[in-house]
Amino acid sequence: MSMPKVVLFDFSGTLFRFEHRDEWFAGLHDEAGEPLHLDHQAELIRRLTQPVGLTVDITDDDRNAWRNRDLDPKLHRQAYVSILRASGLTVPGHAEALYERVLEPDSWIAYPDTIPVLKSLSRQGIPVGIVSNICFDLRQVFAREGAADLVGAYALSFEVGVIKPDPRMFHAALDSLGAQPSDALMVGDSEEADGGARALGCEFALVHDAPPADRPHALIDALAGFGVGL
Which DSSP symbol is given to 201? Predict the structure, then answer.
């Protein structure tokens, strides 16, 4: 493939990373009224960010919500509130409060090279699309970074109605950009979900989900491998 005419990116673990904040747990306590232990806090965060599989026992209805969580915000809320309660956050209203705090745009931290890469692609006239299995409108995260104008198309699972690697997710972004799969490079952190773009004829570059401080230039390196310089 020659230099891509369009670049598609995954969101979580690729351009931005979910990072917990201490203030999420302000006012939350156990049934004895004691503040949540740091180990308990860490376990709750781990279960909130678990990408696949369930680590707690929940009802069949909540399991169905888990399977379909990225297709409907209501199902996403149901699934994760259930998981938090099953993980020991049993004081009435506390699971709901933590869930709402976690969804705030400030919970997503840009990788060091995210905005420089998006700006560079914009300067070079290479359109960008976001293809994400997600239950909320992440446009507000890009707006917070002043990057709203750097993205030309969004294919979000809760809006498209399917999840990656379903080809319809990638086509939704490509069609919005007026591009063919053979024109596109998909960049993501999942061989299974994001790498599904290969089945359409897109090229694919894998980056690894890691804390932003530990991954300063993975996006730059990925694009350079396909002839796109910063």
Answer: T
